[in-house]
Amino acid sequence: MAAQYDGVRSRSSGGADNDQGDVRTTTDLIECKYTGGPGEPIKRPKLLKDMEKVALEAWQEGREPVVSLRFYDPDSPLSGNDGYIDMTVRLLHDDVHRDRVYAEARAAEALL
Q: pLDDT per residue over 46-92, tens digit each?
């Protein structure tokens, strides 16, 4: 993950009080989670099935697949004034590409 985003991997993988998260980039703090591996395939969660469906549909149109998630939890620090938490899920390579395009645009803007 660190290599994909040109970031730095935490030595303690978020285990130290002064080193939270798994990967730091110039703009992001990334927490990494994984499930399954070679020889131990996962039971396919609904989110993965939804992403596969939208990916096949998006790719037919030359678009990026994105799944939007909404949770209601007014007590969460992530919620808006309406109590909802809205998130999006993208494929890693699409997100890395978007991140690089954004960084290039910011760098070009700084030169002006």
A: 999 999 999 999 999 999 999 999 999 999 999 999 999 999 999 99
- The whole-angstrom separation of Cα 87 and Cα 52 is 18
Sequence-ordered list of residues with C-beta below 8 angstroms from that of 44, at least 6 positions apart, any chain: none
CA distances from 52 to 41, 49, 89 (A): 17, 5, 12
Q: Are 87 and 69 in contact (CB under 8 A)?
A: yes
Model confidence pLDDT, tens digit, residues 14-52: 565 666 789 998 888 999 988 888 999 889 899 999 999
User: With helix as H, strand as E and coil as C, how does the chain read?
Assistant: CCCCCCCEECCCCCCECCECCCEECCCCEECCCCCCECCECCCCCHHHHHHHHHHHHHHHCCCCCEEEEEEECCCCCCCCCCCEEEEEEECHHHHHHHHHHHHHHHHHHHHC
Lookup: tokens for 106: 């910011």
